[in-house]
Amino acid sequence: MIIDSYNRVHDYLRISLTDNCNLRCFYCMPEEDYDFTPASRLMQADEIATLAGIFTANGVRKIRLTGGEPLVRKDAAKIILSLSRLPVELTMTTNGARLHEFTDVLEEAGIRSLNISLDTLQQDKFTLITRRDIFPQVKRNIDLLLNKGIRVKVNMVVMKGLNDSEINDFVAWTKDTPVHVRFIEFMPFSGNRWTSNKVLSLHEILHGINAEYDFLPLKGGANDTAKGFIVPGHAGTFSVISTMTEPFCSTCNRMRLTADGKLKNCLFSQGETDLLTALRNGEDVLPLIQQNIRSKAKELGGQFTGKLEDVHAELINNRSMITIGG
Ligand code: SAM
Ligand code: SF4
């Protein structure tokens, strides 16, 4: 098992397939021009399979593919199918734009649950946030998966003054649609124009929903990042991921492998361990993994605490979200 110095067992690995993307969400990408990593510096399909095999042999039970946008990678189908042969629950976070091209692959890989990002239900606002005019395509793909009986969690990053007025529209969506909406507190990453006054807190989100709906808490799993709720009688549910105001680090079981093969033990960790170069040099990577996880900070990469007023984005040393893999 892979265990840190706070006795947290790490059995959930997120693998970023690429830092490339077909959308340009401003909260995820750096503001300045950004050159995507050339293919030769990315983990190749066989290297991803080898590394994933080492993690699963050492206790990893769940793998999430992410990015960038995992489905823009040319060999995405090959990677999904090869990882589906491992003894893990395989899932993915995607912006949904290309899902219609992958329904057969998802079925063959046995993927029954997906996270799809959608920050607004309004077409013009979607274009404003993502700088691409493909709202109908994403919405259609969400419906396509729901009609196939796949469980869909929708990630909505809440940003004050931009899309917070739509929170109850998302809750209304759960009335007749079995969709699981996750409201995510806006997080600071390199170059993403984060300021604390753009964050709508867990407390504020629930307060706004309560003005229109009565809701009940849902029983969560031991390592859940989302606090779940249901409006009685609704087909779907909603939850809040409160990284910024009520972090859930004490039960963290997550590790992240960037598309260029670096292991990060936290979204906000400063250090990273280069597993890809070690693998290419024929070194044993397991001791490197264990060492990296043992050095994991107790909370939020040791860079800030769960008090918004203490967060100074300019002092946080990190990559941009698109290069980490959310
Ligand atoms: N391209 C895929 C997608 O958009 O779902 C996967 C990668 S994306 C980086 C993973 C998740 O991180 C998305 O749900 C996205 O909304 C979220 N995310 C990106 N930047 C964020 C930020 N600054 N604060 C909170 N969530 C963020
Ligand atoms: Fe691309 Fe996802 Fe980042 Fe948007 S959030 S730019 S879709 S990686």
From TrEMBL:
<keyword id="KW-0949">S-adenosyl-L-methionine</keyword>
<keyword id="KW-0547">Nucleotide-binding</keyword>
<dbReference type="InterPro" id="IPR058240">
    <property type="entry name" value="rSAM_sf"/>
</dbReference>
<dbReference type="GO" id="GO:0061799">
    <property type="term" value="F:cyclic pyranopterin monophosphate synthase activity"/>
</dbReference>
<dbReference type="GO" id="GO:0005525">
    <property type="term" value="F:GTP binding"/>
</dbReference>
<dbReference type="GO" id="GO:0061798">
    <property type="term" value="F:GTP 3',8'-cyclase activity"/>
</dbReference>
<keyword id="KW-0479">Metal-binding</keyword>
<dbReference type="InterPro" id="IPR040064">
    <property type="entry name" value="MoaA-like"/>
</dbReference>
<dbReference type="GO" id="GO:0051539">
    <property type="term" value="F:4 iron, 4 sulfur cluster binding"/>
</dbReference>
<dbReference type="InterPro" id="IPR006638">
    <property type="entry name" value="Elp3/MiaA/NifB-like_rSAM"/>
</dbReference>
<dbReference type="GO" id="GO:0046872">
    <property type="term" value="F:metal ion binding"/>
</dbReference>
<protein>
    <recommendedName>
        <fullName>GTP 3',8-cyclase</fullName>
        <ecNumber>4.1.99.22</ecNumber>
    </recommendedName>
</protein>
<keyword id="KW-0342">GTP-binding</keyword>
<dbReference type="GO" id="GO:0006777">
    <property type="term" value="P:Mo-molybdopterin cofactor biosynthetic process"/>
</dbReference>
<dbReference type="InterPro" id="IPR050105">
    <property type="entry name" value="MoCo_biosynth_MoaA/MoaC"/>
</dbReference>
<dbReference type="InterPro" id="IPR013785">
    <property type="entry name" value="Aldolase_TIM"/>
</dbReference>
<feature type="domain" description="Radical SAM core">
    <location>
        <begin position="5"/>
        <end position="226"/>
    </location>
</feature>
<dbReference type="Pfam" id="PF04055">
    <property type="entry name" value="Radical_SAM"/>
</dbReference>
<dbReference type="Pfam" id="PF06463">
    <property type="entry name" value="Mob_synth_C"/>
</dbReference>
<keyword id="KW-0501">Molybdenum cofactor biosynthesis</keyword>
<dbReference type="InterPro" id="IPR000385">
    <property type="entry name" value="MoaA_NifB_PqqE_Fe-S-bd_CS"/>
</dbReference>
<keyword id="KW-0004">4Fe-4S</keyword>
<keyword id="KW-0411">Iron-sulfur</keyword>
<dbReference type="InterPro" id="IPR013483">
    <property type="entry name" value="MoaA"/>
</dbReference>
<dbReference type="InterPro" id="IPR007197">
    <property type="entry name" value="rSAM"/>
</dbReference>
<keyword id="KW-0456">Lyase</keyword>
<dbReference type="InterPro" id="IPR010505">
    <property type="entry name" value="MoaA_twitch"/>
</dbReference>
<keyword id="KW-0408">Iron</keyword>
